[in-house]
TrEMBL record:
This is Myosin-2. Belongs to the TRAFAC class myosin-kinesin ATPase superfamily. Myosin family. InterPro entries: Kinesin_motor_dom_sf (IPR036961), MYO1-3_N_SH3 (IPR057535), Myosin_head_motor_dom-like (IPR001609), P-loop_NTPase (IPR027417), SH3_Myosin (IPR004009). Residues 189-238 form the Myosin N-terminal SH3-like domain. It comes from Triticum urartu.
Amino acid sequence: MLSAAAVMAPVPAAPKSSLEALLETIKKRDERPKDEPPALPARPTCRGRLPRARRSPTPPRVHLEDGVAEGAAADTDEKPEAVADTDKKPEAVNENKPEMEKENTPEVKKEIGGQEAKEGKAVNGRIFGAKRKLCSVEPVDESPYVENLHEERKDATACKEPPSPYFSSARAKRNGKPVFTDSMDYVLQKKLRVWCSASDEKWELGQIQSISGDDVEIHLVNGEVLTLPSERLLPANPDILDGVDDLIQMSYLNEPSVLYNLQYRYSRDHIYTKAGPVLIAINPLKEVPLYGKDLIRKYRQKLTNDPHVYAIADIAFNEMLRDGINQSIIISGESGAGKTETAKIAMQYLAALGGANGMESEVLQTNVILEALGNAKTSRNDNSSRFGKLIEMHFSETGKICGAKIQTFLLVQSRVVRRAPGERSYHIFYQLCSGASPLHRKKLLLRDANYYNYLKQSACLRIDGVDDAKRFSSLLGALDIVQISGENQMELFSMLAVVLWLGNISFSVIDNENHVEVDSNEGLANAAKLLGCSVPQLVIALSTRKIQAGKENIVQRLTLTQALDARDALAKSIYAHLFDWIVEQINHSLGTGRQRTRRSISILDIYGFESFNKNGFEQFCINYANERLQQHFNRHLFKLEQEVRF
Ligand SMILES: Nc1ncnc2c1ncn2[C@@H]1O[C@H](COP(=O)(O)OP(=O)(O)OP(=O)(O)O)[C@@H](O)[C@H]1O
């Protein structure tokens, strides 16, 4: 299965971007009435701008004459289409895009619908499963559009590029000539390539051989012959369009065509594909030669136009500098799709562009720290982010990085104390246990990872191909670069050791009401020592609760379940505060030189959609956050497209 992450092209924003506003809304959702979903932030009043490459001065095929758009004239006098020369290179065929755009205008849709209605036919969209009615037309040797092409070519104001027959949609009957109700009918008539849904899950590519009534005989590429009703078919693109680097160049944007194109490119290590202003990145799950200084230089100098995260980051950087407007890059996709890697690649590009004073390496090293504390092995991803983050990189007027800020969201705390078998807790615990120096081990009273209940319970202490000790030494280097003092580093590690020892504290039931006392063991002694409290103080905290009754304080013993919950809650709370504290330290360090320059690029990377065998409240929150993000994404993108188009 391919996992893909979508990177939304940079979105210019007001000083406080709509993305930030969205995230704030999500953060504040608890303050709202419970039955009312938080509203999405209003779209900025200033119109969004597409990346420069996507802007065109006037919509294609719109020629203003005496104040009347030619496109509008098509309402009454339909312009004929032409047959594309199938020998043409993909680029040539792709130049037919304006025709497709024309077809998609409301006017043309209205016209199509109107004609169909007049003829008493159902308006067939390109939706799979819609029952199609074949037109009873005589076989034609040539597309009926050919004749019209000649007429059209005579017209000096007409579009210079002949449109593709593959865009054909419902057409009016003209001069008694046969017409096609939709593009699928054209494909059937011309016996072109089609996608067949033979089984429910798989699409097969084939060539139409013959049609009998509603049944179509297709020769599949694997040699099989199938006979299927026409509604189980979807039009396939001509093979000259195989592997186009922008999906909008395709004639048919149906599911199998999109998947086929992505797979075609992926099998050639082209993991990036554009879909208009969105970049689709498919996780290669291996090293691919797509990164590095040489490529950064090529994208910087515009020597290549291939889809890439570098290109997205480059657009953001240029637009930010040129317009002095903050930019946002949203990365979205299911867990394991490659969002965090994509975010890091974008940051590396920006750091290469804006680096000069060492701030760039500080910014990049924050990833090492945050991944150690906030990432873990799950069943879907060996390095799964268990928190959301928004990294704001600030630049000076000359484009040099002058600071950064990290915001984090909803760290999954339960993982510290419990997780599914085969998964791990946060990387840092295993890194500390295997990488700490003998001196550190002594000071922190550390043992190996398999000694701690919190770590060994899920029966997974290692990740294939990952050296935790080596990662720990990288972590120490990153903490130094981000200027976390040696003293603070020791505080961090001793609190981590507290969490581990807390998990080894056990309880014994002392009466028939299930009340407990804390076992006096190594876990209790070491946790108290590292916390800096006495053993009796920790015992009271873990096994009793205080209730105020009138003016009196009553101390009650906890039951076994309550005591275990109290212990786990303390461990989770310490870890969550530690995480927030380290983010605060990082922000303090990166804040030097951060000014209100109105030149920043924010990169959003949150945990992706996930669905396990057993899902908890955290999955609910994660998936809800993703739904909201997707909603924002769709709303912003489609609205933007509409605004630009009309
Ligand atoms: N561009 C890439 N090149 C090579 N390997 C990659 C690339 N992108 C992702 N990977 C591999 O896939 C793994 C998972 O990617 P990543 O952690 O970025 O997923 P994610 O979408 O952030 O997942 P989650 O939502 O669980 O955090 C990485 O650890 C890495 O091994």
